[in-house]
Amino acid sequence: MFVTLGFIGALLPLMPTTIFLILVTGCFARSSRRLEAWLLRHPRFGPTLRAWREDGAIGARAKGMACAGIVLGYALFWWGARPTLLLDLVVGLGLVECAAFIISRPAPRRP
């Protein structure tokens, strides 16, 4: 299921990709070494998954896209839900914390 969601996310804007592939790589590490190796060697997703596994690293482009998605998601939430001030602050603070975590990750090492 996570593999399918990850590949759908690679094709659709605003659908996350990497988080699903990180989850599936963890699952495959415990169940199928062959499928785990396939994902880690994949030409498109492998470098990102290996960087996360080895260093907890996120590339600059991915950080920018993730933060842009957070801003867009918050804007759509605010526009569509018209939240109370308290809910607005709670959601906003949670998203700022997520963005801070993403930004704080190191950059991947060059091969």
TrEMBL record:
The keyword Transmembrane applies. It comes from the Bacteria. The chain crosses the membrane at residues 6-29, 60-79, 85-103. The keyword Membrane applies. Keywords: Membrane, Transmembrane, Transmembrane helix. Pfam families: DUF454 (PF04304). This is DUF454 domain-containing protein. It comes from Sphingomonas trueperi.
